[in-house]
Amino acid sequence: MIIKGSSLTNKAALPTKKLYPLAFDVDAAANNDTKSAMFWDFEAQASDGGAVGLILVNNKDTGEDVMPVEFSLPFTVLPFSKGEALFSDINSTRSPVAYLTRGMDVVGRAPAPMIAMFSSRGPNIVTPEILKPDITAPGIDILAATSQATKGPYETMQGTSMACPHVAGVAALLKKIHPHWSPSPIKSAIMTTASTDMIEAFSKFSYYCPEAASLADFNYPSITVYALSGNATVTRRLKNVGTPGTYVAHVNAAAAVSLTVEPSKFTFDKKGQELKFSVICMVDGGHGPLPRGFEFGDLVWSDGKHNVQSPLVVSIKINHD
User: Fold this and answer.
1) Per-residue pLDDT tens for 147-170?
2) DSSP string computed for 107-131
3) Cα-flanking dihedrals φ and ψ of residue 105, to 5°?
4) Facing residues of 252 across strands?
């Protein structure tokens, strides 16, 4: 059985022609096994026990979100699902053995969209009609420069301090191209599209909120309907910031929710034209018990070349008789 994990070690791997016994940390400590690759929380303990390699496994809470760290021993980190497969093999084998291969650079892998285990996954408990989080950026295993001579000039880091520069850099580029944009259109552009070459200024003026407004009709890039009971209608406005064209709505929604977009087709005749549409949400109880919590989908306006995507989030109110 071959199991692929994540590793940052640049140390030589264990010899491929030699298999090493696998032992859990408690078993190895009790037997003082000096030839085992062990499961330890800390490298120092593994080294003291005579381990020649180290395998770390995520628990159920950390799940599939793997954050490899720097160790001097050959090691790998496994997500929860792969760890379960490894444990199953160990528990069904009388004398389990293994070896570790050298880590390889992986290019082009895109784990997004995925929220790191240490980040908030929402929802917005203060104002649930506004989707949060609404913008995320890479913040795991970021190759960063460091002044710590013991680890060399680079190491991988994670956290908000890694994700923020990505968003700040995108915002700075947009501001450079469109110096009159306020934070609102910059955020909207980031939320709704990853293409920046066709983006033009949304407005030459500052954005102001009206004195009274319904959050259901707040012209936010995402659409959230909280505690849906029966049906609800939300409205949004689209402004054409590119060339004239015809856009068609494509809806991806949960089975328990029926969503209708009116109109479902727009034709923009000129740049700067603004059109209004409505999204009608209805509870569809024909697919079994209604789900608890939030259901996710999206609304995409496309002219065949350009796509503008808005996340759709609906929570259904469950009545208890």
Assistant:
1) 665 556 667 778 888 888 888 988
2) -S----S---TTS-----SS-TTS-
3) -70, 135
4) 298
